[in-house]
Amino acid sequence: MTAAPATATPELHPVLAEVTERVVARSATTRSAYLERIRSAAAQRPAGPGRADLGCANLAHGTAACGPDKLTLTASPARNLAIVTAYNDMLSAHQPFETFPALIKRAARDAGGVAQVAGGVPAMCDGITQGRAGMELSLFSRDVIAMSTAVALSHDMFDAAVLLGVCDKIVPGLVIGALSFGHLPVLLAPAGPMTSGLPNKEKARVRQAFAAGEAGRDELLDAESRSYHGPGTCTFFGTANSNQLLMEVMGLHLPGSSFVNPGTALRDALTAETTRRALAAAGDPSRAMGEIVDEKAVLNGVVALLATGGSTNHTMHLVAMAAAAGVALTWDDFADLSAVVPLLARIYPNGSADVNHFRAAGGLQVLIRELHTAGLLHDDVRTVDGPGLARYTREPFLDGDSLVWHEGPAESLDKSVLRGVADPFAPDGGLRVLHGNLGVSVVKTSAVEPDHRLVEAPAAVFDDQADLLAAFEAGELDGRDLVAVVRHQGPRANGMPELHKLTPALGVLQDRGQRVALVTDGRMSGASGKVPAALHVTPEAARGGPLQKVRDGDPIRLDTLNGTLSLLVDADEFDAREPALPAGPSGPTFGTGRELFAAFRAAVGPADRGASVTL
User: Fold this and answer.
1) Exposed, middle or buried by CB within 10 Å (0-12, 13-18, 19+), for 225?
2) What pLDDT, on the 0 to 100 scale, is given for residue 200?
3) Which ranges carry the Dihydroxy-acid/6-phosphogluconate dehydratase C-terminal domain (predicted)?
């Protein structure tokens, strides 16, 4: 089923118009300063290729090992493309990138240009470091990646760039780093999701059975291995796949390229075309990355995230990426848009389908068409495919050896996975911002059943997730309603680790009929599940936030319906309390490289400003 392109631009929804107006006004100084910087950088470049004003010794160093491309780089005006890669072969999502540089170099030569691997960036996996000391490096790796990207591009050899990355901190880090070279055209080339494995509902069942002591380690490992079974991104809708959605809706991917599986002819054709587009854009100031990532593109990303119930991590990553382009985005912008953006997708953990099912149902083409028609997306944006977001309702195909685009489905092909604005899964977005006397926090509501979206219960306070799990295993949390408070998990305290290991245990308690919620200054990401969880509580305990004064038994009300997070304790009594220090080490810790990041912990900003060290 196909449809004609959406040619008419619908009237913008009044809330999106109002939020856009205030973001533009709020960003006036920072955005104009950013644009002045990148336009000045573009004006200072030579008329020919970017390396044209390098000294002979500089150029000799940059071309010494270039083999067949050496003469092209030294004696011709051909454009040179930087490849910045997050390849490693430990992580399924990044393993496919092993073959991308050779493919990109061939495509560049065919287009009359050259491509060089400018540098590599680290890529760590929260799924591996979950519950381990290494998780405390995870969020900070985003800033390391941003700085590594800048180092890679700092050689003044390049006219454009292609970024190879997929997962949690990798894509935001690549984008932040590349925006410091926003005068260059930059495209991202995704690797795509692995094919579907064990159904997500069965995986979740085994995890919870293991947490309850009803399944052994062998059964758990078998289920996990059948879920995560081959090259490509994990297929659930966590931060990695939320990244891909954002890059496409923000116009930094080619249309329809985000969820094409690795190792396919279509994937290779899209990568080659990404190379050609990057080289073709070189020298055109209007196609520079910093011109594309503006206020409207950022807000398009927010809307798409809300409409799909994407990762809560992006309440930090999107804020940080926006700031790198001079755009001042706040959690209140998320909250106001969430009130009017309908939830149109059910992808695990918000449903049983994975991203392959989402793509088959019509995917981003249907999502963008529906949101655009409802006036909930800005069409008047620049993209790497050309002007106008309506171009992204098209889907790529191979016609023999040629890559072509056709209009995607006019409507969802599976309404259990993807719906239209007229018949959404919920009338509002899958993320909420909560305000109250405990601070400001975010909650992913799309996976939480309606009767669990308001919980009022006594606090059970912990300073480490391991302590909560120990209490669960000892039966200390059985038979009572509770709001688990896990504090001293913010960016300044210990790097803000994700707390995924809490989900199965809290899910068991909820399934037993207990009223359960989680409140933490840590993270849970796109894997946030069926238990309501107020995350990223700001200010965090380590910054003197109210969480440091909460005591066991204090009544807490987590109300996602009205957007509040409240401690129901007399204000004078609460103010008179002494703050509780963490039970464990309160200073910088050592081991697994954590001592190297002490300066990051000291310098990091709060979660609602992106939890950034570099911005």
Assistant:
1) exposed
2) 72
3) 417-611
